[in-house]
Amino acid sequence: MRHDSHGPIGVFDSGIGGLTVLKTLMAHLPHESTLYLGDTARVPYGTKSSEVVTKYSLKNAQFLQARGIKLLVVACNTASAAALPALAATLPIPVVGVIEPGARAALARTSGGGVGVIGTPGTIRSGAYQRALEAGGRAVRVKARACPLFVPLVEEGWTTGDVPMLVAREYLSEFARDGVDTLVLGCTHYPLLKGVIAEVVGPQVSLVDSAEATAQAVVELLAAKDLMAPAGGPPPSHHFFVTDVPEVFADVGARFLGRPIPSAELVDLSF
Question: Does residue 3 have a pLDDT over 80?
């Protein structure tokens, strides 16, 4: 299948969190069409082995590739940590994950070398951000912390107020004391808590949104490979696919995307 500038960008995640990445992509690339796949039947990926996550990720990528995507964004920290090498080796199109761009942005941002990373237990346990930061050519001190309650808070819509503030203080109060000046939001849900997180860590800590860094990496890659959609082309389209509960995805996902999701098509990726 020939891939050219007119093809859509493919994005997949284990569920709805990757919609924060899609939102940023749409803002940076207003002429690009997209296909988003949420593997909602198998969410969460963070509790599964690397082998299983890789198997699911390859299946997701094959589904999107069959629909003519020109570039794949792995908008899932767990899948980026586990499956990116296999995806890059298998697919004939460029593949971008969320971890390397986030790490590069943090290394560029830190002034004193103290970098914090927060994410789901699976992402922190994988050590993927820690390795990417330590391999970046700068002497950094990395402090990582799993924040498992952040995801359910965001999915319930509790992104402001006393409850998320208390949880954030419990998780994050030590970062500023430990000399962290840059904090990577290593989960696609966490941008929705950016206001609370910023208030807890204070203005001296710069927040790095991996979704923002990933979108910038996609812009640069499309330009380098001459795959950018022409500005005068047809209006972009955005289609959504899920493996379970499309109505819940459309309802909750609208908060993540920042706009209504008219519908999501239910697909079967069983194997």
Answer: no
What pLDDT shows up at residue 174? Answer: 87
Find the CATH number of the domain harbouring 197: 3.40.50.1860
Q: In what order do the strands lie in the sheet with 206-209?
A: 141-146, 114-119, 182-185, 206-209
Same domain assignment for residues 61 and 143 = no
Any catalytic annotation for residue 76? yes
Q: Are residues 261 and 173 in the same domain?
A: no
In this structure, the answer to whether residues 46 and 110 fall within a common structural domain is no
Out of 103, 187, 207, 227, pick the active-site residue: 187
pLDDT at 48: 87
pTM: 0.91
Check if 147 is active-site.
no
Residues 207-224: what's their mean pLDDT? Answer: 94
Name the active-site residue from 76, 151, 172, 193: 76
Q: Which DSSP string corresponds to 137-190? A: SS--EEEEEE-TTHHHHHHTT--SSHHHHHHHHHHHHHHHHTT--EEEE-STTG
